[in-house]
Amino acid sequence: MNRDITVLGLESSCDDTAAAVVRGRKIMSSVVADQTALHAAYGGVVPEIAARAHAEKLDLCVERALIEAETSLSEIDAIAVTAGPGLIGGVLSGVMMAKGLSAATGKPLVGVNHLAGHALTPRLTDGLDYPYLILLVSGGHCQFLRVDGPMAFTRLGSTIDDAPGEAFDKTARLLGLPQPGGPSVERSALTGNEKRFAFPRPLLDRPGCDLSFSGLKTALLRQRDQLVSEHGGLHPQDISDMCAGFQAAVRDVLVEKSKRALRDSDGITGFALAGGVAANTQLRAALETISSDHGVVFVAPPLALCTDNAAMIAFAGAEKYGEDGADDLTLSARPRWPLDKKAPAALGSGKNGAKA
Ligand code: KG4
Ligand code: ZN
Questions:
Q1: Between 114-126 and 311-324, two packed helices, what is the crossing angle to 10 degrees?
Q2: Gap between the Cα atoms of 73 and 101, Å rounded
């Protein structure tokens, strides 16, 4: 790949409208307009509201990204856009915008898989060499991928039901904590005792790297209802203890499955973490420890590049462009788009659709 090409990236597949300019591995600008406030009243992302907000905000984000990068469309070498998977209205908004820009400027158009954006981020941030293992953990996805190239992904295991971020969000909802659930559960867990409640560690008794989180959520619901019926309500300490117990269960499951995935990955240069749940401090620390035990480098990109952003799309677009060239204006928006075409369809698409 030509390291010096400058790519404008667009991302609009869930509830973040984002645009960024990336040159080689240098992030010239990265603008993210999040829609949290628009969806707050509904307890989750409302696809129609998201799509409309993307359509309204995309051009402003692009304008801002170009200004902050001190560049202009004429200096851009290619336009990369998330073409799936995700909420289709949002993906369409981005793809239409990118096609318009490409048609107007004559610049090459590159359709990027959102998951590839996350999966290639360790190369953008840390220059990690192929092949490496990555654990993608977000609001809509949880999978182990072996990454052998910009378009060569092998799935070693994935969730058979909920994604961990979705489970964090549901836990927050059950305990009356604000959305998104991950940060609020993590905050509450800081003052909790993870050993007070014995939450299950699903699927650890089965071989392989597949994961499950729905039983954990059910256990938490039962525990909450039991406390409410015994004491007539929840004490703040109960909430913190449940958050700590839940977070510890997710961590333990991800740690054990990561050990297995590492054992199954010959010749890798490192182990990386990506997706919104990668923001979790405890999880990062635990995975760092097992990576060093296994003798491989651990890469956890900065938080702003773990959650949805367009710099990862611009970078993945540059890598894909180098390997496979541009797409034409028939590029379509795809609600589902598995990275590993050989792997069977993963169950459970998450509340946000098939996302990462
Ligand atoms: O990748 P992302 O920004 O969006 C997609 O799902 O594509 O991930 C968002 C998810 C949410 O479910 C959120 O609750 C979770 O990441 N999350 C966290 C933390 N920060 C965000 N989960 C656990 N701990 C966190 N600190
Ligand atoms: Zn994502």
A1: 100
A2: 9
Residues 338 and 257 in one domain: no
Number of domains in the chain: 2
Which residue's structure tokens are 């039983």?
215
Q: What pTM, to 2 d.p., does this model score?
A: 0.89
Alpha carbon of 273 to ligand 2 centroid (Å): 12
CA distances from 299 to 158, 161, 222, 318, 337 (A): 20, 26, 36, 21, 25
Q: Pairing mode, if any, of strands 6-11 and 78-84?
A: parallel
Confidence category of residue 44, pLDDT binned at 50, 70, 90: confident
Per DSSP bridges, beta strands 142-149 and 132-137 are antiparallel
How far apart (Å, rounded) are the C-alpha atoms in residues 98 and 10? 7
Q: What is the DSSP letter of 11?
A: E
Give dist(CA 212, CA 328) in Å, integer. 39
Measuring from each residue's beta carbon to the nearest atom of ligand 1, which residues come in under 6 Å?
14, 138-140, 165-166, 168-169, 180-183, 186, 275-277, 279-280, 307-308, 352, 355-356
Query: Is residue 52 assigned to a domain?
Result: yes
**Residue 1 counted as domain residue:** no
- Indicate if 115 and 135 belong to the same structural domain: no
Domain of residue 261: give its range: 130-304
**Where does the pLDDT of residue 346 fall: very low under 50, low under 70, confident under 90, or very high at 90 and above?**
low
For residue 186, what are its two tokens?
A: 């993590």
CATH of the domain at 265: 3.30.420.40
Cα 276 to averaged position of ligand 1 atoms, centre (Å)? 3
Same domain, yes or no: 181 and 288 = yes
* Mutation choice for ligand 1 from 282, 307, 313, 352, CB with most ligand atoms inside 8 A: 307
Task: Please tell me whether residues 34 and 105 are part of one structural domain.
Answer: yes
